[in-house]
Design goal:
The chain is α/β, with parallel strands linked by helices. The protein folds into two domains: 2-202, Rossmann fold; 215-391, Beta Polymerase, domain 2 (2-Layer Sandwich). It is built from 16 helices and twelve strands. Helix 6 (134-144) packs across helix 7.
């Protein structure tokens, strides 16, 4: 099943997105609703809240007085953290039960207000963030939640910043116009990305790059996209000793490239890579069939030394090439050395960019383009090695 994390600042419109996704058939798990369930009368959660904050947070009927609790909690960081330590583990346990009960082909949307604050983003296949500017959110909170402006601003300030949420967002939905506009955006997201993502994930099918070549200007969001992907990979493989690196052209600031994130996962041996294949596929990175080798470079001509495993992405919205190499493979060193040399040497970077532009103008397919670049890497190998020796570079 496809697991989606949905979040957004208070008043941004996250619930509207959740409800729209539910109309399409998504299985919705509402963390706010679960947070109420775990402190319902008679629960251990409610007893622990009362022990922590006093009987004053109880209403006359024995239920939690949320306004009274908010007055206690929103006065400082320590009080909020104490409440979270009571609520969050219980909500996570109940969430896991509901996910286990969902159909295997479900798109499960977990509506989590504090997803970013809780560090949960890497546990989902995709994170959707709903955003609106502060003035819009304050107006909504004043109009719908019986708060004054200062109370609304206090609630907003108690949550993660917009920048922190954007950093976690694979999909950013801006909700400052009519509800119909938001629905249109959600409908397109469901149709074009979430439904095919779920099917690809279930069938262990990776998204193929298009053979129609497209080389685009450097995108300053590429490093942040890599960070989100790397966090998912690290979460998927757990305590296995590994190293994850952003490699390839999208890892070189200012360099134009195909819009493909190349990632290198280094493990102790290819046997470990094989053992991790199912975990990576479950996380949205299915293995590419066939035998894969890097092109041998001078000094290590044996193709067997360059063997690797290749995974891709099941997400149609983000093409990924995940190169899994064993520790000590010359491919590990080569990928990192060329990346760092191009980052450091402006002349080499300009030379490589000129080659890309020339080949792009020749009308090549993506496969032919990749092959046509290889002779250049062979030609500049000694220059890159000379730079590495001069600066004392190590992987």
């Amino acid at each position: 099943m496809l697991r989606i994390g949905l979040t957004g600042g208070i008043g941004a419109g996250k619930s509207a997105v959740a409800h729209r996704l539910a109309t399409h058939g998504a299985v919705l798990i509402d963390a706010d609703q679960l947070a109420r369930e775990v402190v319902a009368p008679g629960t251990d959660g409610l007893r622990e809240v009362v022990d922590a904050f006093g009987a004053g947070v109880l209403g006359a009927d024995g239920t939690l007085d949320r306004a009274a609790l908010a007055a206690e909690v929103f006065v400082g960081e320590a009080a909020r953290r104490r409440l979270e330590s009571i609520i969050h583990p219980r909500v996570r346990a109940r969430t896991a039960q509901l996910i286990d009960a969902a159909p295997p082909d479900a798109v499960v949307v977990n509506d989590v207000p504090l997803l970013v604050e809780s560090g949960l983003a890497p546990t989902y296949h995709l994170v959707i963030v709903v955003e609106a500017d502060e003035a819009t959110r304050v107006a909504r909170l004043v109009g719908t939640r019986d708060l004054d402006k200062e109370q609304a601003r206090s609630r907003i300030r108690a949550q993660a910043s917009d920048d922190a949420r954007r950093a976690a967002a694979d999909v950013l939905l801006i909700n400052e116009r009519a509800l119909a506009d938001l629905h249109t955006a959600v409908d397109a997201l469901w149709r074009d990305r979430l439904v095919p993502f779920e099917e690809n994930l279930r069938r262990r099918r990776l998204v193929r790059r298009q053979e129609q070549l497209s080389v685009v200007p450097y995108d300053p969001t590429w490093p942040a996209q890599y960070q989100r992907l790397a966090a998912r990979i690290a979460h998927a493989i757990g305590d296995v000793t590994h190293r994850v690196d952003h490699v390839g052209s999208t890892a070189v600031p200012g360099l134009e490239a195909k819009d493909v994130i190349d990632i290198q996962l280094t493990v102790d041996a290819l046997d470990t890579a094989d053992a991790l294949a199912a975990r990576l596929a479950d996380a949205g990175f299915p293995r590419a069939p066939g035998q894969w080798h890097d092109n041998p470079k001078p000094g290590t001509p044996d193709p067997a030394a360059w063997e690797k495993r290749v995974h891709g992405s099941a997400d149609p919205g983000r093409v990924v090439h995940l190169h899994v190499r064993g520790e000590g493979s010359p491919g590990v060193r080569t990928a990192l050395m060329f990346r760092d040399w191009l980052r450091a040497d402006e002349g080499a970077r300009a030379e490589y960019a000129a080659l890309k532009r020339r080949l792009r103008g020749e009308g090549l397919t993506t496969t032919a383009y990749a092959a046509a670049k290889e002779p250049w890497f062979d030609e500049v190998w000694e220059r890159a090695e000379g730079w590495a020796a001069q600066v004392g570079w190590q992987p």
